[in-house]
Input
Amino acid sequence: MVSQGRAWHHAGRVAQIPESIPSTGFSGRGLACRRGGRLVFEGLDFALDPGGALLLTGPNGSGKSSLLRVMAGLTPPVAGGLAWNGESLHEDPAAHRTRLHFVGHLDALKPVLTAGESLAFWAAMRGGDHGAVQRALARFHLEALADLPCRFLSAGQRRRLALARLVASAAPLWLLDEPSTGLDEASTADLLAAIAEHRRGGGMIVAATHLDLPLERAALLALQDFAPRRAA
Amino acid sequence: MSAFLAVVQRDLRLALRQGSDAALVLAFFVLAVVLFPFGVGPEPQLLARIAAGVVWVTALLAALLSLDRLFQLDYEDGSLEMLALTPLSLPFLVLAKCLAHWLTTGLPLVLAAPALAALLNLQAEGYFPLLLAMGLGTPSLSLVGAVGAALTLGARRAGVLLSLLVLPLYIPVLIFGVASVDQAVAGLAILPHLSILAAFLLAALPLAPLAAAAALRSALE
Output
């Protein structure tokens, strides 16, 4: 796909995407996504270096969640492609799943399982061990709730438990859809601390958010800039 | 492998904690079989003649009851999406869920079948073949059912649609399952029929998870 030379916003500045595919990090070029027969965005480029963060902004329906689903490999883009360390994701979609964490709108918690069991299950799916689960519970201050079935958890506690999955097993790319929804101030601080630590270790973050998520050195990607133009 | 076992363990734990699903399937099986003597009359010879067929048909219907929930709950609470993004590949995920489904619904049906056959006056030679045939046949029901459950995911009235899709595919299992019991009662060899049931299971074992995984992928898009 021919690059349309679109500008993107980098920490307030307008930066130009390099023409070649970057050899490190996670990038996408010329992405277009169709949901329910409607083109949501097109000609979208992004690039994320190790340790980088990308904030997706835009009004409702501008395609923030759709872009995250494309990045996760759940929804195939109708145009364009993604690359990891310079290699196209088309080559090996299975490898992509081992390097990402996805936290969507839904918390994926079972009412009859306890908080500890839920977290241990999701960690086991990605090779996280018991110690990592305990550290993740502590990190989001959930130790006291570990033996409580999830049906007794409040919305904020459920959210914290969903986020605790991020640290219960390691993955270099975190895809977060409105991660701070329903969190109080202290829990948001826990989340920001976890994100900062992840980035210090070379991890990458893509987060869709309405609320201001104060991330340092984060690039902004305004989805409304990539709304499809009407056919001339 | 550990991820595969983690899914099986989770599904078994969920089935044990909520309990109702597996118990309902078994209760339906028992009740439906018990209805037959009221419908066709209590004549022992007649009941003995239809025993294998009745047990098999009701087992098929009972297995169907729980199938629409195989992926539905995981789909609704976002777990399925998350599971699809774990390193465990989708066909193995389906296989793990089928194994858990069979252990919680198929296996109880197999174990209850001889007792219900006794209610219907099945002749003594039929019990062992009935156990064998159901042991070989019910895993196929879970596997083929998983394809239907994946295809109808998110559809309105998924349960009804699922029955229409899946019941015709159950016919081979039904024919050879019933025939192996009838053959044994008639004093004939049962190995050919059991072999066909085994062949059906061996074919379903790789094919059904692949088909169900493709259906799940499109449901999750």
